[in-house]
Amino acid sequence: MKKSDYEAELTPMKAELVGMARWARATGQRVVVLFEGRDTAGKGGAIRAVSEPLNPRQCHIVALPKPTDTQQTQWYFQRYVEHLPSAGEIVLFDRSWYNRAGVEKVMGYAEERQVGAFLSQAPIFEKQLVDDGILLFKYWLTTDQARQEERLRERLDDPLKRWKLSPVDLAARDKYEAYTEARETMLSATHTEWAPWTLVDFNDQKRGRLTLVRDLLDRLPDTNVPPEDIELPELGHEPHAERYTLLQPIADYPLN
Amino acid sequence: MKKSDYEAELTPMKAELVGMARWARATGQRVVVLFEGRDTAGKGGAIRAVSEPLNPRQCHIVALPKPTDTQQTQWYFQRYVEHLPSAGEIVLFDRSWYNRAGVEKVMGYAEERQVGAFLSQAPIFEKQLVDDGILLFKYWLTTDQARQEERLRERLDDPLKRWKLSPVDLAARDKYEAYTEARETMLSATHTEWAPWTLVDFNDQKRGRLTLVRDLLDRLPDTNVPPEDIELPELGHEPHAERYTLLQPIADYPLN
Amino acid sequence: MKKSDYEAELTPMKAELVGMARWARATGQRVVVLFEGRDTAGKGGAIRAVSEPLNPRQCHIVALPKPTDTQQTQWYFQRYVEHLPSAGEIVLFDRSWYNRAGVEKVMGYAEERQVGAFLSQAPIFEKQLVDDGILLFKYWLTTDQARQEERLRERLDDPLKRWKLSPVDLAARDKYEAYTEARETMLSATHTEWAPWTLVDFNDQKRGRLTLVRDLLDRLPDTNVPPEDIELPELGHEPHAERYTLLQPIADYPLN
Amino acid sequence: MKKSDYEAELTPMKAELVGMARWARATGQRVVVLFEGRDTAGKGGAIRAVSEPLNPRQCHIVALPKPTDTQQTQWYFQRYVEHLPSAGEIVLFDRSWYNRAGVEKVMGYAEERQVGAFLSQAPIFEKQLVDDGILLFKYWLTTDQARQEERLRERLDDPLKRWKLSPVDLAARDKYEAYTEARETMLSATHTEWAPWTLVDFNDQKRGRLTLVRDLLDRLPDTNVPPEDIELPELGHEPHAERYTLLQPIADYPLN
C-alpha cells in the first residue's frame, strides 16, 4: 500500500479520533485499548496511529518493563492496575497482562500452573473493569511467518530498527507454531461477551492500521461533542517579535 | 522547509539517536531533556522527533497534568522527582518544573513569593541531579508572535489541531511580552554552568527540530557502542502461515 | 478486664504473632487483614495489638485518606490494590474497600447504584486475591450503642482522644440502626466461602482484642519456623563508650 | 526508670503532641522527624512514643526496605522524596537517607565516593525542604556498648524480640568504634544551621524518649489551636443494642 494512499485514508479517521477524545473528556469516559500480537506484527505503529493526533496529557501509552523481583510476588494484575484510566483518559497498552499467556508461556518464563491461573483470572479481572464502566478493547495483530522473517531481516539490516531485535525475537522464530497454539488457547479462555478479542491481519501493516483504527471508531458510540466555541479576535497591534538579552538562540541547522 | 528535505536531514540523526540510546543502555547513563517554550512553538513535534526512533520502554515522555490539591501543598519538585530516570533511561519532559516561572507566573496561578522561591531553588535542585550523574539538557523553543498567530488560527480551523487550542492559549496572546519578560527573568536565574539553557528558534518548526536534535547529539559524549552481534540463520523450513480456529481476523479495510 | 490480666493473656500470643511473621517471611506468604466496624469499636487498638510485636518493615498498616477527585473516577478498588502485599508481607487495613458499603452508604456519600455495584464486585475482587494465594481475613468489630455513647463522651472529655471525635461520628449516633442494616446487607452479599467475615464483640475492648488475635492465630496454618541460629560470642574487650566531638547529647529530661 | 514514673511524665506530653498535630492540621504545616542511631538504641520505641497518641491518617511512619536494583541506580534521594508530607501531615522516618553515611559506609555497602557525595548533597537537599517550609528535625540516639550488649543478649533470649536481631547487628558489634567515627564525620558534614542534629542519650530508653519528645515539643512554635467545638446532646432514646441475623460474633476469649 502506498504511503500517500494510506495517509489519504487515515487523515479523516484522525479527525474522528480527535472527536472521540473530545467526547471522552466531555463525558468522563475511560477507554483502555490492548495491543497484542506477534513480534514484528506492528504494535508500535498501530499505537502511534491512534495516539499521534491526541493530547499526550489525555492519551497515555503504557509499555511496562519486565516485573521486578518484588512485583513477581504480587498479585499478577497489580502493576497494571495503577495505570488504569481516570475520567476522560485513554490508555493504550503496548503489550499487557496477556504477556503471561503469550511470551511467558511459550518461552517458559511462567509455570503451567501460573498460565492456567491467569487464563481463568483474566476474564474475571476484565469483567470488573467493564462492569465499572471502562470501555475495553483488545486487539491481536496477526502476521504470517514469511512477513515476520522479512521484518526480522529488516531489523537486522536497518540501524534505525536494530534495537527492536532481541535474542527473544530470534528464539521466537522457532516457536511460531507454539505462539499460534498459545494464542488459540488464550482466545478460547478470554474471548468473552464482555471483553471480546478482535484479530487484525497485519501482513500489510498500513492496511492493518487502517482496519484497526476504523474498527475501534466503529465500536465507540456516536461521539459528536462539538468543540468549545472559541473566538480569535484581531490582535489589535503589530505582532511582537522575540527579544533576547542574556542568551540568543543557537545557530540554525545549516541547509545547503 | 520541504518535508522531503527535512526527512533527508533527520534520518541520519535518527540513527545517531538510536546509537545514543544504545550507549545509554550499555553504560547505565541517565538522560533528562526538558522541552519548554511558548504555546504553539512546537514542543510536541520536537519531542516526537527525538522519541520516534527509540524504544518506548527506554525513552519515556512525561507530560504531567496540573497538580492536585494535595500535590499543591507538597515540596514543589516532588511530583517531578518520581519520573526521574533509572539507569539507561531517557526521560523527555513536555513542560517541566519551569511551569512555575512561565505560565504560572504570567497567568497569576502562583504568587510572586512562590515564583521567587522557585527561581532560587531550581538551580540547586538541578545541581543535585547533575552531581548525581544525570545528564540534563534544557531547551527553550522561541517563536515570534506573527508565527504564533498563524498557528493559533490553524488550530482553530483544523479539526485535527483544535484540541491544542485552549482558553489559556488565547489569554497568552495578550501576554506575549509578559512571557518574554518572564523567560528573561527565568534565564537570568537558572542558566547555570551545570545546567545551561539552549534557545532554539522555532519560527520554522522543521528547521528548529533539526537544530535541536543536532545540538543534543553534539553535546552527548561520543557514543559508539556497537550493537549486539546477532545471527539470523536460515529458517530451515517453509515459513508457517497463521492458522485460526476460534476467531478469524476481521475484514480488511476496503480499498478502492 | 484488668490491664494486667489482659497483658498476661496477650503476651504469649505476641510470641505466636512473631512466629507467624517469621513463617510468612520464610515461606513468602502474603497476609491481608481488614479491620472494619463501628466508630469507637476499637479498630485502632486491635491493629496495634497485632502490629506492635512485629517488624514495621514487614507489617504495614494502611489507613487511606478519603479519595481525591481523580481517584473518585477510577476503578473503585484501584487505590487499594497498590497496597496489597508482596511476598512475606502482612498488611493491616484500618478501614478498607468496605467503606462504600458502610459509611458511604449510610451517610449518602455514595449512590445506591454504586453501593449495589460494590456489593456484587467485592466478592469477585476478593476471590481473585484469594485465588492468587493471598491469605485474607476480614474482621468486623461490634459494639452496643450504650458503650459507643460512653466512648464518644470519653473522646469529648479526654484531650488525648479528642481528635478521634469528628462531626461524622456525631452524625453516626443517629444512624446506629442504619449502620446495623447496612452491615447486615453487606454480610449477606460478601460473607463468602473464600473470604468469610468474622464478627468480634468489642463491648469490652481488651477482651475483644484477645478474641480477635486468638482467632487470627488459630486460622493460620501451623507456623513453626525456627528462628535463624545466631551466636553471640564474648565481645573480647571492654565495651566502648560513646565519644563525642562536635556535639554532645542534650540534657536528660529532669526527674524529681 | 520505673514504668509508672515514665507514664506519669509522658502523659501530659501526649496531650501536647495531640495539640501539635491539631495545629499542623489547622495551619497546613508539614513536619518531618528523622530517627537515627545505633542498632538497639531504641528508634522504634521513640517513634511509638511520638505516634501513639496521633491519628494514623495524619502521622505516617516510613520504614523503607532496602532499595531495589532499579532504585539503586536512581537519584539517591528519589525514593525518600515520595514520602515527604502534604499539608498537615507528620512523617516519622525510621532510619532515613542517612543510611548511606552510617550502615552503608561502615558495612561497605556504599563506596567511599558515594558516601562523600551523600555528605555534600544531604545539607543541600535538606535546605530545599526547609526553604520550602517543611519543619525538619533530626535525632540521633546514642548508647554505650555495654547497654548495646545487654540489649543484643535480650533480643537473643526473648522470643518476642528475636526478630530484631539480624546478622548485620552482630557484625555491627565489632564496628562500634567505626560507627562512632562515621557518626562524627556525618555530623561535621550535615549539622547545619537550617537542619541541625540533636543527640539524645538512650542509655536509659524511657528517659531518652522523654528527653526526645520534650525537645521536639519545645522546638515547635506555640501551637495552641483549640479543638473544634462539638456538642454531644442527649441521645433521646434508649441506646440500641447490636442485632445479628446472618452471623453472630464468635465466642469471647475464655477467661479463668
TrEMBL record, chains A, B, C, D:
Record keyword Transferase present = yes
Q: Does the keyword Metal-binding apply?
A: no
Recite the UniProt keywords alphabetically: Kinase, Transferase
Q: Which InterPro entries does the record match to this protein? A: P-loop_NTPase (IPR027417), Polyphosphate_phosphotransfera (IPR016898), PPK2-related (IPR022488), PPK2_PA0141 (IPR022486)
NCBIfam families with a match to the protein in the record: PPK2_P_aer
Please report which protein family the annotation says this sequence is part of. Belongs to the polyphosphate kinase 2 (PPK2) family. Class I subfamily.
How would you summarize the oligomeric state and partners of this protein?
Homotetramer.
User: What is this protein's function?
Assistant: Uses inorganic polyphosphate (polyP) as a donor to convert GDP to GTP or ADP to ATP.
Task: Specify the protein name.
Answer: ADP/GDP-polyphosphate phosphotransferase
Q: Which organism is it from?
A: Qipengyuania pacifica
